[in-house]
Amino acid sequence: MMKPSRRPLLGALALAALLSFLLLAAPPSGLLPSSSSSRRRTPTSPYAHRPKLLFLLAGQSNMAGRRTPPAPLPPPYLPHPRLLRLAADRRWVAASPPLHADIDTHKTCGLGPAMPFAHRVLLSSSPDPAPSSVSKPTVSSVSEGEPVVLGLVPCAVGSTRIWMWARGQPLYEAAVARTRAAVADGGGALGAVLWF
C-alpha cells in the first residue's frame, strides 16, 4: 500500500498560517486608501471613542455575506451613528455593508446577519418607543446614563475549516487580538460572539 501524500495537508496548513498572519498584522499604511478618502466613503461617528457593547463576528461566508450589496440598502442594513465596526486598520468607523470587505479580502463580501442583529439590539436598548410587533427585551448600557453604542468586530473568513478557529490556531488568535484591540480603543465589554 502507498502512504497517503501529506502535501495537500501541508499546503492547507501553510495557507491557514499565511491568512492568519495577514489578519493579525496591521496592514501597511500604503495598502489601504488614505484616511481622507476612506473618511469620505465611511461616515464618522461621535461615538468612536466611547465604551461599546462589542460583538465578535466570526465564522465563514454566512457571516461575511456574499454578493455585492444592493442599492439602496434594505432598512436593517442602513448605517446608524451608534453602530460602529472595527476596520482592518483597527480604527472605529460607521458600520455599513459589507462589514467584512477589508477582512475577508479574497472574496466579494455582502450582506450578512450582523447588521439586522445590531439594529435589533439598538432598538431594544432605545428608550424611545419604536413601532414593532415584537416585544423589546432590555439591554443595559455599557456606561450608565449613556445610550448604548455597539461595536462590531468582523473576523469571519469564508472557506475556512472549523479547526482553523480552534484555540491556538491563527484565525482564533487573530479574532482574540482584534477583540483586545476593540476593548482597548474606547473600552467596553464583549457582549457575545456571533458565529455563522
Helix-strand blueprint:
Blueprint: H1 7-24, H2 35-41, E1 52-58, H3 61-64, E2 83-86, E3 92-94, H4 114-125, E4 150-154, H5 170-184, E5 188-195
Parallel strand pairs: 1-4, 1-5, 2-4
Antiparallel strand pairs: 2-3
Helix pairs in contact: 1-5
Tell me the total number of β-strands.
5
The largest pleated sheet is described as:
5 strands, mixed
Order of helices and strands: HHEHEEHEHE
Structural class: alpha/beta
Global shape? globular
What's the alpha carbon Rg, rounded to whole Å?
A: 18 Å
What's the pLDDT, averaged over the residues? 77
Please bin the fraction of helical residues: 25-40%
DSSP strand (E) fraction? 5-15%
- How many helices? 5
Distance between the termini: 41 Å
Main β-sheet, spatial strand arrangement: 3-2-4-1-5
* Unreliable parts: 26-41, 129-141
Give your account of this protein's structure.
This protein is of the alpha/beta class and 196 residues long. Helix content is 29%, strand content 14%. It is built from five helices and five strands. It has helices at 7-24, 35-41, 61-64, 114-125, 170-184; strands spanning 52-58, 83-86, 92-94, 150-154, 188-195. It has a five-stranded mixed β-sheet, with helices on both faces. Strand 2 (83-86) and strand 3 (92-94) form a beta hairpin. It is globular. The model is unreliable at 26-41 and 129-141 (pLDDT under 50).
Sum this structure up briefly.
The protein is α/β, with parallel strands linked by helices. It has five helices and five strands, in the order ααβαββαβαβ. It has helices at 7-24, 35-41, 61-64, 114-125, 170-184; strands at 52-58, 83-86, 92-94, 150-154, 188-195.
